[in-house]
Amino acid sequence: MPFILRSRRVLTPEGVRPAAVHIASGRISRVAPWDDAAGGEPVVDAGDSLVMPGLVDSHVHVNEPGRTEWEGFATATKAAAAGGITTICDMPLNSIPPTTTAKALALKRAAAASGAVVNVEFIGGVVPGNTAELVGLRDAGVKAFKCFLSPSGVPEFPSVGEADLRDAFPVLARLGLPLMVHAEDPAELLPGGSTSRYGDYLASRPVAAERAAIAQLVRLLEWCPTPVHVVHLSSATSLEIVRAARARGLPLTVETCPHYLTFAAEEIPDGATEYKCAPPIRGGAERDGLWRALLAGEIDLVASDHSPCPSAMKATEGDFFSAWGGIASLQLSLAAVWTGARARGALPERVADWMSDGPARLIRAEGRKAALAEGFDADIVVWDPEASFRVDPAALLHRHKVTPYAGRELYGVVKATYVGGKVAFGRI
Ligand SMILES: [Zn+2]
After folding, report:
1. 198 C-alpha vs ligand 1 centroid, how far in Å?
2. Rg of the chain taking only CA atoms, in angstroms
3. Contact in structure between 209 and 159 (CB atoms under 8 Å)
4. How remote is the CA of residue 128 from the centroid of ligand 1, in Å?
5. 49, 57, 129, 339: which sits with the fewest CB atoms below 10 Å from its CB?
6. CA-to-CA distance for 291 and 294, rounded, in angstroms?
7. For residue 24, how far is its CA from the centre of ligand 1 (angstroms)?
8. Could you tell me the distance, in angstroms and rounded to a whole number, from the CA of residue 326 to the centre of ligand 1?
9. pTM of this prediction exceeds 0.90
10. Which residues crowd ion ligand 1, with CB under 5 Å?
11. How far is CA 357 from CA 121, 252, 318, in A?
């Protein structure tokens, strides 16, 4: 049913202005002046709320099928919609089977088909010995590939070494799809043990591991250029290598995550395993460096790396090494990033650059997603950047509610989310 969504603040490709977004058949048919309701369609008036392209989260672990008790498409996508996210990209691991063959992708698609309330795209896996599967995965519609340079945390998704990458790179270059890389060099990681001290965990995964891994990727790119995307960058100091590689024209992009932009190692209490992720949350200086780089346009996008697990796997009597590494933040990532951006004097439209436009470009959806313009999908978030809320874990729609954001005051309240012109969350 066609309708008009209007507000005094609509983020259009020309900037924020009063406008009426005309929606029909799941798409935007035109963006008209605010009082243009010619045609007589029903008008939904969002007042002064910001109407913006829905967010695209290019890094989400849904875990279904196989580990649906950790999360699932129904719960993950409900949380996404509540957080203003209209498209998620599901990572190839933590589900069983992992998405390393076209056959496994078909199982994923079937799982997502029943129960997802936002768009779901898929990332294929690159693991030792599966180079022959990559063409089939591309043909079946994956938007990118993902690999780990250090152990992934699950046995069925092994990490790759130099020889595996030398096998895969020429194939990826032909396919033209980006390779997303978990960039930590296993040779630089220190052995674990048992500790409730956050500092011990942090020291076991030093910045040197991230730097060495990125340097290895740059060497491979010089040998065979193909789009490579470093996921969840945790240290601003590693950006030096990225900058130099880009200056030489190498196709290297990079993302960071809400938790690296929000928290700082020195503020993490001992035993607080809800903060555990890999690479780890580093000190305040690195956090501030990531912000400077993000504001300067040196980081391409922000993705959640939503990586949930059952609460018991996080509650390990405070032992950082045996706790699952991952932070579930689909529902909070818009507010977390906006809160930090706002404190640094940025405008909300920058959030759209980092969390909608940037990820849409990565998955080559920029002509269809991430803009409120004629012909684009009607994937829209309506939110109030000036309103704040205190994070109550009980209000999270993720399957498991453990969160380091508990009790935190965040700016940015999502009022409604539309996916293909249909309400996926909230009401106006
Ligand atoms: Zn991840």
Report:
1. 20
2. 21
3. no
4. 18
5. 129
6. 5
7. 35
8. 8
9. yes
10. 305
11. 16, 17, 38
Q: What is the pLDDT along the chain (428 residues), one digit of tens a residue?
A: 899 999 999 999 999 999 999 999 999 999 999 999 888 899 999 999 999 999 999 999 999 999 998 899 999 999 999 999 999 999 999 999 999 999 999 999 999 998 899 999 999 999 999 999 999 999 999 999 999 999 998 999 999 999 999 999 999 999 999 999 999 999 999 988 899 999 999 999 999 999 999 999 999 999 999 999 999 999 999 999 999 999 999 999 999 999 999 999 999 999 999 999 999 999 999 999 999 999 999 999 999 999 988 888 877 788 999 988 899 999 999 999 999 999 999 999 999 999 999 999 999 998 899 999 999 999 999 999 999 999 999 999 998 899 999 999 999 999 999 999 999 999 98
- Which ranges of 183-238 would DSSP assign to H, the alpha helix? 198-204, 207-223
The CA 90 to ligand 1 mean position distance, Å, reads 10
Question: In one letter, which amino acid is 253?
Answer: T
How many whole angstroms from 151 Cα to the centroid of ligand 1? 12
CA of 254 to the centre of ligand 1 (A): 13
